[in-house]
Protein 1
Amino acid sequence: MIDSTNLCLSCGLCCDGTLIGFVQLSHEELPVLRELTDIEEASRDGVLIQPCNKYCDGCTIYSDRPKQCASYDCELLKAFHRKELDYTSAIETIEVAKQRKSAIEEKLALLQIKLQSQSFYFKMAELRKLYLKNEHELSKTPDFKDLIADIKQLDSLLSKEFGVTIF
Ligand code: SF4
Ligand code: SF4
């Protein structure tokens, strides 16, 4: 049977650091999760930095996953639940998003722009700062403008279909 679990298993964009930068953990769930995964401490609570190392073709700590993970439904998933979107169309949208993300990663590698972040989500935040400052040595090159155009195109898709903005 095709259901939302299959859809999320085929997607993973909210676990692999594309749509979300970190998962906020509550004080109560820290003891269990500290045993299961690497947690960055932040005052009394903690955060799970994306890309999540518990994602491997699905969540490998599914029954113990953080509350924020369990309660998160992107707009694509909500539309699927409401039967406004069929499974095939949803998968097609996910694949387009993944292809555009891969194309951006390839261009980033070619341009050799030094970014500190591990996750795609935070890399986009760093790039946005560079773009707005307009001070990077590559800022005025056609390749950089081409990269920014691709990012804006992906951002527009993610905003429209998933309800998430990354740039
Ligand atoms: S981004 Fe949406 S469809 Fe993809 S795994 Fe997360 S909730 Fe599921
Ligand atoms: S704990 Fe599981 S559901 Fe949460 S981000 Fe990691 S892989 Fe995804």
Protein 2
Amino acid sequence: MTVFEPAREIPVRASVDILVVGGGPSGVMAAYAAARKGNHKVMLLESRGFLGGNLTIGLPILAFLGPKGNQVIKGEPQKFIDRLRERGAATDHYPCKLHKSFTMVDAEEVKNVCADMMEEVGVEVLMYVFCCGVLKEGEQVKGVIIESKCGREAILAKTVIDCTGDGDVAFRAGVECHKGDADGGMQPPTLMYQLRGVDVQALRDAIVQRPEVFDMDNMPHSQFTRRHFITVGLRGMIDKAREAGLDIPVNRTILITGLKPDEIWVNMTRVSGTDSTEPSSYTHCEITAHRQIKVINEYLRRFVPGFENAHLEIVSPFTGIRESRVIVGKYVLTAEDIVAMKKFDDAVVVAGYPVDIHHSKGGDCTMIFTEDAYDIPYRVLVPEKVEGLLVAGRCSSMNHEAMAGTRVMSTCMALGEAAGSAARVALEEGVLPSAVDVSKVRADLLENGAYLG
Ligand SMILES: Cc1cc2nc3c(=O)[nH]c(=O)nc-3n(C[C@H](O)[C@H](O)[C@H](O)COP(=O)(O)OP(=O)(O)OC[C@H]3O[C@@H](n4cnc5c(N)ncnc54)[C@H](O)[C@@H]3O)c2cc1C
């Protein structure tokens, strides 16, 4: 059944040069890069009451370093880490055989640093607004429609950058979008949470001293002698817990040390079959993931050393979405491109994270490693047909397997910086983003310290 929504006039709240929708890792970087020369009016829209997106849910940032150990994500993402480090709110980039590197950040300081960065370059931030429509003239985007407690309003923009993770703007603008693998299967979401009171030394000792019992996927046990580590393994313990009747939704125990000595972030809930673009599906996911926390905690207490006295401290504000829509852009990056480390003349990001597909069903994961870092071309940010729009972050133009590599936050930040830079350079040149001279975008990124191989 459908009903007719009458057409109506709506107020124009603002008219800007560059409008970024979504204030996660890609959006914050896009807005900053768009505004950093001070010659354009830039606005950032965010549906939640804080900036940072998935940077605020207790995840480590993976793969600032590439497979060969050199730093591949630099530029504005690295400056963001430097700002956090000045506040004691980010660790070093720790090399890791599985993840290439990981960097823990403090979620609360992430929110503050993102807000400070926007203020510093004069980006107008508007929170608690949901982008629910697009204004177009022909095939060119001219702005968006937002919905808030005020009702509906329009924001006009010369260029819009979609950093919503779900491709909300692109989808509404009629850009062709895809979800998941050939059967529509998407990587499942996870609700992150933090435990305190963990005896991290006991966990470390168990892994280092009894590797045959406390098995790790692909990671040498020597990696666990340092202060910070991520466990991915303990498959045998999960088997035992299942034999004891515990319904564990994943096959691997993923635990991340936090900034405080007794803090562990748990990445083990998962709700297969969720589609975050369908609210009833996402609702079921949230409720189920919250219920899973209890059983996972029982597993940790009974089967994993160090958790005997642990208590639940924080449940992240929302269940994180690994995968939903991706757009079809001027180029669709594939896993074959990544594995072949294909070179692109219009590379705007060089990334190092392997293809890491959390299976849509069954609780396991496939990882495909590359020998070295790989190029990501500018064309993945540019929709195939619709003009005036760039799409950065996990919804850029990649197939299911490729986005399983490019989705990590270091890469998403770099994609965001590239989109913001391209939008600014295109306006300076008086051309649409699809026609920008990419060598000028690359020069702009290099000037800001990016690594492009
Ligand atoms: C459980 C889980 C574990 C992961 N593990 C890691 C890890 O260990 N390390 C790592 O580096 N990466 C990890 N990732 C991947 C990474 O977190 C994401 O792929 C990345 O954050 C995507 O960045 P983004 O900017 O594209 O989107 P997001 O981080 O999702 O940000 C999108 C922002 O847009 C806002 N928004 C969305 N729609 C609208 C709208 N219509 N209007 C206004 N605002 C809107 C959202 O509120 C949000 O703030 C993980 C992801 C998940 C879910």
